[in-house]
């Protein structure tokens, strides 16, 4: 998702969009492209080659392996991703869902330019008929998924978008009853840049969540402990969640941090294991 306030730049002054354009040029001019066409892992190998010399916001191999292992275990029919960027995780996880008997992979992306780049890479990987990139706000699209019947139960949700929206989007899904026993939530970047509000929520007991819910729906996003740049990036200033809700505090989660050895970041793996009677 492109910043609607500021397009973040790396140390050499390149904006994220500049890097995506540079990546596409690198791929389309790569000597191994013809051989890689239609092969998701070979396309990603070219991306990894590019990423060695260029800072890219990708899930990467070690964390990606955690997710693909869980896809193999869960074998979802449908998997939803929040935050596509240029499609790395959509290719990696979409291919895993397809190989394990799935039917569809939905990747939600706010920025139409990044979504267009992702679609190009997804087509190069041969996944264009399986992975669907949908442009728009994640909370609005999730609401539309539920109301249209497109996705009524979350099997696996990969969360890697606007950091303050991790928690509000989860509560929206809870509110609609999309989180059910067996639902699997996989949240990236929970250590770097970090997401204390999300971690506190999925690690809380039902009693703790009920107590917080007594105050009613929160106003706006909870940005406690979030880096200023993650709050100011991606969404318009003064933006608010599409739906303000306490979610469903009666849901019981079992949540663990999965941090690959030597990695500074981790995946929070959260399972819905039941619903406690009020």
UniProtKB/TrEMBL annotation:
It is an enzyme of class 2 (transferase). The keyword Transferase applies. Keywords: Catecholamine metabolism, Methyltransferase, S-adenosyl-L-methionine, Transferase. InterPro entries: SAM-dependent_MTases_sf, SAM_O-MeTrfase. One of its GO terms (molecular function) is O-methyltransferase activity. Its EC number is 2.1.1.6. GO terms for biological process: catecholamine metabolic process; methylation. Pfam families: Methyltransf_24 (PF13578). It comes from the Eukaryota. Coiled coil: none annotated. Belongs to the class I-like SAM-binding methyltransferase superfamily. Cation-dependent O-methyltransferase family. This is catechol O-methyltransferase. It comes from Penicillium cosmopolitanum.
């Amino acid at each position: 998702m492109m910043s609607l306030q500021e397009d973040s730049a790396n140390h050499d002054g390149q904006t994220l969009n500049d890097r995506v354009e540079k990546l596409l040029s690198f791929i389309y001019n790569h000597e191994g492209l013809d051989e890689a066409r239609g092969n998701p892992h070979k396309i990603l190998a070219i991306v990894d080659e590019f990423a060695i010399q260029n800072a890219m916001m990708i899930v990467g191999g070690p964390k990606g392996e955690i997710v693909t292992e869980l896809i193999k275990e869960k074998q979802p029919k449908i998997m939803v991703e929040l935050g596509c960027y240029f499609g790395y995780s959509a290719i990696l996880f979409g291919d895993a869902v397809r190989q394990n008997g799935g039917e569809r992979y939905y990747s939600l992306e706010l920025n139409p330019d990044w979504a267009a780049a992702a679609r190009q890479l997804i087509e190069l990987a041969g996944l264009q008929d399986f992975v669907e990139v949908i442009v728009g706000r994640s909370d609005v699209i999730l609401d539309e998924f539920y109301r249209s019947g497109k996705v009524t139960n979350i099997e696996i949700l990969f969360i890697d978008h606007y950091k303050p929206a991790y928690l509000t989007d989860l509560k929206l899904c809870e509110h609609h009853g999309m989180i059910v026993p067996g639902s699997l939530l996989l949240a990236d970047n929970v250590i770097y840049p970090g997401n204390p509000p999300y971690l506190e929520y999925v690690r809380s007991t039902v009693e703790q969540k009920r107590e917080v819910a007594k105050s009613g729906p929160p106003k706006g996003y909870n940005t406690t402990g979030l880096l200023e740049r993650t709050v100011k990036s991606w969404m318009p200033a003064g933006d608010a969640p599409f739906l303000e809700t306490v979610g469903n505090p009666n849901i019981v989660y079992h949540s663990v941090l999965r941090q690959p050895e030597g990695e500074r970041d981790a995946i929070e793996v959260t399972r819905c294991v039941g619903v406690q009677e009020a």
